[in-house]
């Protein structure tokens, strides 16, 4: 029978003794082998934390357009800042959403000999008139990174590896990214039904918070789509291409998309992406025989070659999604092979 909804996992059961923890790990492995997506409850963020995050995101989107465009991503060689509705592409088609991208706050790398992907490191563009946005999402980033690190330890154990097998890649300068996203309601013409087009996430792990009461997210499974509406208080968690790479395809990076809300409706979401340092190599896990027998290999797509170096994947994804930033700041990289010399 086709699956009708995503599996649900409760992170707090990890504190209920070794048997409960073992059960959690088995469920984690099954969910991300079969579906690649699950709901996560018991993660420690309260309803108040979540309500504050959405209220802050709403305040940002309510700013006049002339304030928001001062922070436009096209100003940033590091792919940070605001994209107005229609400012991003997936599979070459316009996504009908507006958003601000906030990544790890660091200085830009000035060494001209650094690999091209180090250009992704740099400062964010923060809205001057809304200081609470920086406060709220700096804390959100820390909380989500801690939840993500905990999940990575449990995956490591479930995969028969030492708990810290992924830790080195994340220890120094992990690449975190938060997007605040607003999907306007569908208009009457067709092109506006793609909130975000079908894609896999390029990194390791995504913790997505959807505005309470909203649908729209669909997850590919067995040749069909599973609807994944907001579940009160829960994250939607999924793995990306680099986790598929690390497990030789035992875990699955799953295609998903967001269908635009009905005309007149609006949907907010807050995806958090946890990724290793740009210049780190994601370890390829030595799977126990029982799991290795079920590893499907990494999906081979000549248009989307997956590298073990996270920065290569991320740069490729960013150049593809934001051709205006690429043209203004990275003309030297446009049209180069998907994976190759930095
Ligand atoms: O907004 C959502 O529900 C999902 C967004 C998404 O898949 C992404 O930004 O990668
Ligand atoms: Fe995604």
UniProtKB/TrEMBL annotation:
SUPFAM superfamilies: Clavaminate synthase-like (SSF51197). PROSITE patterns: FE2OG_OXY. Keywords: Antibiotic biosynthesis, Iron, Metal-binding, Oxidoreductase. Pathway: Antibiotic biosynthesis. Residues 173-276 form the Fe2OG dioxygenase domain. Belongs to the iron/ascorbate-dependent oxidoreductase family. This is 2-oxoglutarate and iron-dependent oxygenase domain-containing protein.
